[in-house]
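Much of what follows relies on a compact textual record of a protein's fold. Think of the row as the fold of the chain written in a discrete alphabet. An example makes this concrete, so a full record is given next.


***
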Amino acid sequence: MAPTYRTLVNLMSNTQIRIIPLGLCWFDIKNIKKLFVLERRPTSSSESIYNTNFDLIMLAPVSAQLNIVLCTNNKFHRLGFMGYNDILLYKGELYALRIIRGTCFGIHVFDQEQIYRIYLIRGIAPNSNKDEVYLVESGGDLFLVRRQPNDLLQTAGFDVFKLTTDEYECWYLNAVKLQSLGNHQALFWGRQGCFSVPVEESSPFEEDHIYFIHVLEENRLTEYGVYSLKDGSIKQVPNLNVPGPPSASAESFWFFPTVKDTTVYPKRKLKVD
């Protein structure tokens, strides 16, 4: 019996990337939370539509925790520690966010396959080990975005912090809470991450707003809404907030934009994200 492969497809370039058979993976590749595809070297012309000149960096569940998994030459292995909350390719490096012992946020920065820099973030502390937090690049700056739930675990708001290096203590990042993203930006929050988009004059979106989709697993409800950083108000979209089976709720997500011609970790070109 032939092995069953998963295939990633870039519909714009018709690039197809074949992934190792599922039976040989030690994690469920269907539950990948975030995925980056990196081009290792310039692709050569070939009759095959399948391209193998890519590495995959993904955030995936292993032993009930999110781990960074690198796939190169169809071989998988973990990077860093267990229990990361989010990953981001920022200014050519891989940043990984984790909650340290429930008391503080830390960021591991990778060079190739090794951690070569560790930051502690001050100015913000986790509410719990289950904080919902993402790293975001917006206008060239590094942000940390945290969802704030109410007593019913519904979305009560969001906190956005700009992270900057400390002038005197290079192992710290200072977190400054924002009420404006600057540079005419809006954020989109979903189960697979958070990303920033510029708001033009003709755009249907508003700057300094967070457009969110959030799945409440407890009551199988999906929230759709818009949060204003300026005044802290939330505008719900009630006609979409209807109960449904877990499989239906899990289908709601934003399509993340494709990033082209961007230098990324480790100094490669980001082909698809």
